[in-house]
């Protein structure tokens, strides 16, 4: 079986061009920010520079390479050094990426899983009291921003009850091993994760419910019932499967916001992540780092979209590419 | 459905267990102190890699000692056990502590001091200026004499109390100090050895240097963590020292924490573009000062947790503060009188007009970093209201900090709200915050060179080696500055911290601020017996 047919290879080329465009944008846009690294670092600092010293410093930081050179460096994996950290960009991204994946990925998976199941069950009981009791509060919850939930959780569970820590991803330098470390990470992850799950759950629930409601009355569902299949099989293997496509699309699109999506929660809980890193890099006008993260993030979005395209076919064989 | 509920139950159980059961306990016997701060990362702790901000310097100072240091009361010996000044030869003699050694057990000698000065001449360290030093002469292993080429009054604060000493045997072969990444780059003579800096999480780990010449430090491990919620972190006992907002003082006191308060070392300032009409007129700037009620800003935007500032730039707690600095008590009528004397006429709506055009000023505001924590500005609204009542129309623009800074630097503004520390430190801050020659690169510097008398005084104070005569000059500078008003000092926000006394460490705010005037209480002297 060919992995990519003619139409699909055309798609890949389109994505390649889009990718190139994104590289160009991530290279040129950060340079358009007003102010520069020297101003951001020194202008408000305890160190007062005179005009000569400032010019001297500025000369060290403003040599922007041409786009061709930049592209070449990217491909040969020379992603450059951060102005502020004086460390390789790739190292910085790799250090923070696991935390972002843990928090965002975990929140998305959990909220997708529970949202889906709750949505299917609610759609199946359409019109019942249980369903009505769910939909209302969920719609309400959908409108509550993460910052609200985050601060509330902190107040109740961290300040008053003291069950969870207020900041960080792990107890710094506690020298724990194995299971103890996993428990520590989980302990710190609990509140930010709960905040994000609560923020994402309603959307998933409502989408799943809406999609399943549409297929409930379909012919094939009645057939499945008539065949005498157990109820859960009718619901999940036959009906809900058709609702999978919008859910997967939503999951993919949401994952694209991985970098900045958790910024609010990361800030409230002082949780490390790519969002925080990007935010600080912008505040410090650390151009190489901004370029690196923006590029990484946009390429990730492209890859996810490409992956989704090939996944659709597998999920729903009826999906054909436009001829 | 039942299976879902059972699954849910187990997940909740797991969460509960992780919350209560596996809470990590610090190993018994390892004494560690944890300090929290909002930003977390301030660069690697060596002179060429830490960020040019107070907290960055402090993290470096734990590893690298200076010749002299400060505690609550004033200068104390550090690497130099004693020092003296000879006016005839314009030379400072430092006698080093023979017990001082580097973290790699090599002895610290006068050669290292002389080397450091030479090295800083070749590779400048922006916190200090070695331009006025002619040469450093090594008399013997423990004695170094530093000869000045020209008189330099901030010498003791600068070269004595701020300049870190570098190990000659390591840095003599380093040509590119900024990219020197080796673990050897962190060998210092300070009480703590640098062990780790986690960039992603903004955490630092230091371990005590057991052979420190002033005695083994109290805490075996010193850990910096990042926490945006100091109230919660302190209440839970997760950190032992953090900067707090004034409102948090009462609840924390009830939990048994000690609250300490800084002298007034940081001030909010209204920057003025004195190159643009009508702000180029001294009378107009004075009118602005009369129109602004410092008290109202403090009460409305800060719930009373601040002190009105002296208009002479130096803190009212500074040892050279001039108590007779001119002040501008809130007087809108006087303000209107002064504006009218410049040819403005009040229109029917109360706004001043000249040649048909209303008097309109743009005020820039942004997040300001106070003692290392970023705080959103609230004073803009109140200043807008106050100036509006006097008859000046104000356009308040909130921008991101670096954007505001670059506009102020390029003189593309009318008024801007900003602030800075260091007003309790050496009076050199006056030169940096007034004259372009010293502070052109700082967004907090007024860059005001229009008054020849002021320029003369500023030059004189840098060259006056006699403290009593220098004090007289500094008094006069404050008086002239307050009359010229190239910028209007607004208030000193209350600066508090809380710490856990059970750890056996007493933290304090250094008199005049750490080194250049850094208003944070992380003075390493607290950790040394």
Description:
The complex is a heterodimer of chains A (323) and B (529). With 323 residues, chain A is an all-alpha fold. Chain A has one domain: MetI-like (MetI-like fold, Orthogonal Bundle). Helices cover 72% and strands 0% of the residues of chain A. Chain A is built from 15 helices and no strands. In chain A, helix 7 packs parallel to helix 13 (263-269) and helix 8 (178-216) crosses helix 11 (244-256). The longest helix of chain A has 39 residues, at 178-216. Chain B is α+β, with helices and mostly antiparallel strands and 529 residues long. Chain B has 3 domains: 29-43 and 51-62 and 190-262 and 495-529, 3-Layer(aba) Sandwich (D-Maltodextrin-Binding Protein, domain 2), CATH 3.40.190.10; 64-176, Dipeptide-binding Protein, Domain 1 (Dipeptide-binding Protein, domain 1), CATH 3.90.76; 266-493, Dipeptide-binding Protein, domain 3. Chain B is 29% helix and 22% strand. Chain B has helices at residues 2-20, 54-61, 110-122, 155-160, 168-171, 230-235, 249-254, 282-291, 294-302, 332-340, 379-390, 401-409, 428-434, 436-439, 452-463, 467-484; strands at residues 32-37, 68-70, 75-77, 80-86, 91-96, 133-140, 143-148, 192-198, 203-208, 221-226, 241-244, 258-261, 266-272, 306-308, 345-346, 352-354, 357-358, 360-365, 368-370, 373-375, 393-398, 415-421, 487-493, 496-499. In chain B, strands 8-9-10-1-11-24-12 form a 7-stranded mixed β-sheet. In chain B, strands 14-23-13-22-18-21 form a 6-stranded mixed β-sheet. A 4-stranded antiparallel β-sheet of chain B has the order 4-5-7-6, with helices on one face. Chain B is globular, with a radius of gyration of 26 Å. Chain B starts with a helix and ends in a 30-residue tail after the last strand. The interface between A and B is large, with 65 and 81 residues.
